[in-house]
Structure formats: C-alpha cells, structure tokens
Amino acid sequence: MMVLRQFVKLTSTELRLFQREPIAVLFTFIVPVFFLFLTMEVFIPGDAPREIVINYVTPSLMVLIIASTAVFAVPQTIVSYRNIKFLKRLKGSPVKPLTILSSLALANFIATVLGIALLAVVAVLVYDANLAGSLLSFLAGFVLAFLSLAAIFLFIPAVARSERMAIAISYIIFFPVMFFSGVFIPLDRLPDWIARYISPFIPITHAVELMQGLWQGNPLLDLTREVLILLGILCLGLVIAARTFRWE
Amino acid sequence: MVKTVIVVRDLIKSYGDLVAVDGVSFEVYENEIFGIVGPNGAGKTTLVECLEGLRIPSSGFIRVLDLDPKADGYKLRQLIGIQLQEGKFPDRIKAREALELFAALYSRSLPAGPLLEKVGLLDKADDYFDSLSGGQKQRLSIALALVNDPQVVFFDELTTGLDPQARRAMWGMVSSTREAGKTVILVTHFMEEAERLCDRVAIVDRGRIVALDTPANLIRGIDGGLRINLWLDNLSIVTQLENIKGCQVAVSGQDITIQCADDLVVDEVKLVLKDNNCNFHDFTVSKPTLEDVFLSITGKEMRE
Known about the structure:
The complex is a heterodimer. By secondary structure, chain A is an all-alpha fold. Chain A has helices spanning 2-18, 22-43, 50-83, 86-91, 97-127, 135-152, 155-159, 163-180, 192-197, 203-215, 224-244. Chain A is globular and about 60 Å long. A 6-stranded mixed beta sheet of chain B has the order 5-6-7-3-8-9, with helices on both faces. A 4-stranded antiparallel beta sheet of chain B has the order 11-12-10-13. The relative contact order of chain B is 0.14.
C-alpha cells in the first residue's frame, strides 16, 4: 500500500511538473499537430492521394511524439533532477529506486498518450484518417515502441554530465534521426545507401515501421521482425541503464 | 542516563586511493545539537551521508537509532530527516507541493500548512521553487527535513551562501528543532555557527576527527588567552609592551596584535598605554574562537 501511495504521488507530481514545462508541452501537443497541418495543407503534392498520405503521416508523427519524449523529456528530466540532487533527496526518503524511476516513466508515458490522442483526434476528424488495423494491437505496438525508445535513450543521462551537455546530445541525435528513420521522409524516398545502411540501425526506424504497419492494418504476425528488434532494443536499453544509471 | 542515538566505530570510506573518511569513531546523544565542522573537502559530507545510508562505508560500524543504515535503510529513513548540501528541488514545484510529495513518501507525516507556518513560508506556499530566495529555499528544505517528524535531523551546510540575516533565521530554526525534542547533526564549515549552536563539536580534518568536545572546552583547551587588537600612532611603545610578562606582540604596519595569557595581562597592557599617554584607537579584546582551536590543532587556517 505504501509503495502504491508513493508511486501515485510521484507520478502525479511529475505530470504536474511536465505540464508546466512549455517546451515539453510544445513538442508533445502543438508541434505534431502543426506538422500534420503542414503536411496536409502545404507540402502535399496536388496529385497525391490524400487518404494514403494522412494514413502514412499520422503514425509517423505519433513516433515523433514518442521520440521527443524518449530523446528529450526523459533524459533532460533525469539529468536535471540528478544535478539539483533531487534524485538523491528522494533516495534519502523511504522510497525504492525502482518506484522513483517507474513513476518517471509512467508520467512521461501518460503525457505521450495524451499527445498521441490529440493528434489522432485531429487526424481523424479533420483529415479522415482511418485506423485500418485493430485498436488493441496498435496500442500494444505503441506501448512497445514507447518502452524501447525510452529505454535505449537512457544512455544520454549516463553519458551527459551537465544539462547543457544532455541538451546538446539530444539535439545532435534528434534531427538527423527524424530524417533518416522514416518519420519525416518515407524510407523509399531516401537515398538508397541511407535507407539500406543507416536507417536500419536507428531504433526509431523500427518504431515507425511497426506503428505504420499496425495503423495501415497489417496483422501483428507480419511485423514479427520489428517487434523482435524493438524487444531487443528494450532489453539492451534496460541493461545499459541498469549498469550506468547514476543517482548523483 | 543519556541515551545514545548514533554510534560510529572505525568508519572508513575510500574512493580508490582517496580516503574521504579515515577511521572515525564517535557517539551522538539524544536531543543534542552535534556539530561536524572542518574545512571544505575534510570529509564531513561523506561522513554524514554514510550515517544517512546514502553511501555505503568501506568498513566500520554504524548504528543510528539502533539501526544499521546499510541493512535497515528503509526503516531508518522513516525516522530521520535529511537536508542535503546544495540540495535543490525542481524549478516548477510549489513549496506546498514539495511538502505534500515528501509527506506521501513516509508512513507518518505532518500536514504541510503548519510546517510552512513554522518555517515562515505560509505566504509562499503557492510559489514556485525557483522564485524563492536563497533563504526561503533553505527554509523549505528544513520543512522537508521535518515532514516525517523525524527523531534525528541532518543539516548539511544549511547556511552556506546566505546573508547574515537569513543565516540567523536558520540558526533559530535549528535551535527550535532541538527544542522540539529532536537530535540534530549540523555539518558546517562555519565555525561561528558551530560555536553558537552546538552542544558538542567534532572537528574534522582530512577524514579524521582531530578534536571532539563542547565548544567551551575546546576553546579553553587551546590555552589561547585573550587577544588585543589596536592601531598605534607611535610604535616606540612596542618594546615596553613586549616586556610585559605573558604577552606576545605582533606588529604589522601600525596594526598591533597582542596575545595575552589572561585578564591581568590585558589590564597591564592598558596601564602601559595609559601611562605613556599613547595615541591609539580601534582597541578590541577578543576571546579565542573555534577558528583558533582549528588553527592550533591542525596548524593551518580554516580558510585558505
């Protein structure tokens, strides 16, 4: 009971702090919807079939939301809390380290879910996006994508000593990755050598493949490869984090 | 019979070749304010963090409230309050929210309102942490250290970086914490603070306790006598002053420092000055302080 009460309070406090961070709110709620609008109103070629484009863009932008949580929000929060000794102070109270970390993960997960829900509502209501696959397997794929990306980018707080350094690393990773992983540009439009030798080694690429496949109605069985790769990334991320995580 | 709340025996904490705490033993009694003082880098923080269970000692024996911080960490943390050196909180957390958060982490906790009132932050309850002044942040960290109504409270460099007025306010809060029946461990590099507040003081230098006693006994122990400082117009009197028994004179320009064995010697110095119709000003007599104790024990100044 005690653990549950700690967990709920830590999570709700973290959520409250999240919504007071303008940048996090911007990237989770505003930017994805803006990109959706931009794609559908500005960038879309006149002869392009709108229903195909919207059903490509919607799952891609969902991965953008997951990635901004995984690459920016979670690592920045950890580095900041570590630098101000807030993590250490929490550890000095009767709370288990796992409770602290899982509450941080859940709060970011909830924020991501809300961002994705907002994007989905706009995509469906304004641009007639259509989830062709089953909602349940789509949600399962989303949870997997979130967990593996959140886990693998925990290497950022392990490497970064200061908040400035963490922000620099996040930016250096984020933008190239967004272009080479199929979020902004479909993989088949990228130069062949990038699509073949770079994209497959970016974890986010596999999240994009999975989310797009599920959104467009491919059965989960056809996506086994992506699921296994993401599970592998999740395990790798957790092992690295467990070995390198620093409380101070 | 005084109850012992902390027992430390032969505590060693090393990081590779660096020995931060080098064989420390002491006891802390119930309801005292126990000072751990010494220069920066002496190992004070490492020492208390071993007591708090935040660091695992390399070797040695620790009991806090009869609990082993390593083996019974969770149980112990219910009973102690912690304020960390340079510990801060997220910028956008409100004072009341921080208290409510930590209250939820303990099985027994005090309501936020009265705690905020106690540390004089009731009107700041809904202000963000980053909008509080340095003193207000430290008040909040005191309130957070008291949120579980602990039996033992650790304050680490509570007043560092604060202006004198805020510092005095902190001192009042440390005293009232003890008056509320708690035992207080006060880590500071500020000797005046230790001298004023602490019942007993452990002086730490290079990971060792070099002296441990009440501030009064420590000061009496160094046999420093009294010190006179004054500004002399005419230095011709100096030789005569040097001839007074129990008197050591140091001249720096026209600033004179005279180390006197006792009150009688001070009177004699005054008499000599008067008899010779000397022109002097800024005459002060001071007792030795813990700073002098540190100097006499370790042979170096507290601040370099």
